[in-house]
Design a protein that fits this description.
This protein is of the alpha+beta class. It has helices spanning 12-26, 74-88, 132-145, 155-162, 166-181, and strands spanning 2-9, 32-42, 46-55, 60-71, 94-104, 111-122. The chain has a three-stranded antiparallel sheet with strand order 1-3-2, covered by helices on one side. Strands 4-6-5 form a three-stranded antiparallel sheet.
Length: 182
C-alpha cells in the first residue's frame, strides 16, 4: 500500500499539526513501512512530503514524529531539536527513515530546524492486549485446573505474560476466589 502525505504553509506549527492529522487518517492501523522518502523544503513556506510503502501483513503500527525548534544559531537549533526528538523516541521503535532541514530567516537571522522521523512499532500480541475480563476468565480457568489453589500458580510468570504487575495478578485471584465463595 502506498501512502503520500503532504503539508505546506507559512506557519510551521500548523503545517506540522496538519501533517500529524494526515498521518493519523491515512496511515494503515497495522502494517510495516518497507520503503519511504521524506522531503522537507523551507523558505517563505514550509513544505513536507512523505511517501511510504507499507506491508500490511506485518504486525507493526507505523507512525511519524515531526517537530521543530527555533534558535539564534543553527547548531543550537539542531541540538535542541535532537533533544526534543530523543524524548519522543521509545526503545521499541524501529526508525525506518528520517530527515532534517534548517532555514535561517534573512531579516531576523533566526534558524528553524524541522525534522521528520518515520517509524515502525511492533504491535503487542493479542495475549498482552487482553482486557481485565478476559484475563480474569483465563485466571479463573487456571485456578479451576489447580483446585483453586493459588500457590500452584507462578504469579511472576503470569504477570509477565499478561503484561501487568504481580499485584494485579494477586488482586485478580482474590476477586476470583471471592466469587467462588458466594
Amino acid at each position: 500500500m502506498l501512502v503520500i502525505l503532504h503539508s505546506e504553509g507559512a506557519n510551521v506549527r500548523e503545517s506540522i499539526k496538519n501533517l500529524n492529522n494526515l498521518a493519523q487518517r491515512k496511515f494503515p492501523p497495522r502494517g510495516k513501512v518497507i520503503t519511504s522518502k521524506i522531503k522537507i523544503s523551507m523558505g517563505a513556506f514550509l513544505s513536507i512530503s512523505i511517501m511510504a510503502v507499507f506491508d500490511l501483513g506485518e504486525p507493526y503500527k507505523p507512525g511519524i514524529i515531526v517537530d521543530y525548534t527555533v534558535s539564534g544559531n543553527k547548531e543550537k537549533a539542531i541540538e535542541e531539536l535532537q533533544e526534543k526528538l530523543n524524548s519522543k523516541i521509545t526503545p521499541d521503535m524501529e526508525i525506518k527513515d528520517f530527515s532534517l532541514e534548517t532555514y535561517t530567516t534573512p531579516v531576523t537571522r533566526r534558524t528553524y530546524a524541522v525534522a521528520v522521523i518515520l517509524y515502525n512499532r511492533p504491535v503487542k500480541s493479542s495475549f498482552e492486549e487482553l482486557k481485565l475480563q478476559n484475563r480474569r476468565k483465563i485466571l479463573a480457568k487456571l485456578l479451576e485446573l489447580v483446585n483453586f489453589n493459588p500457590k500452584a500458580l507462578n504469579i511472576s510468570e503470569l504477570a509477565r505474560m499478561f503484561g501487568v504487575s504481580r499485584d494485579t495478578i494477586y488482586n485478580d485471584i482474590q476477586q476470583i476466589l471471592k466469587g467462588q465463595e458466594s
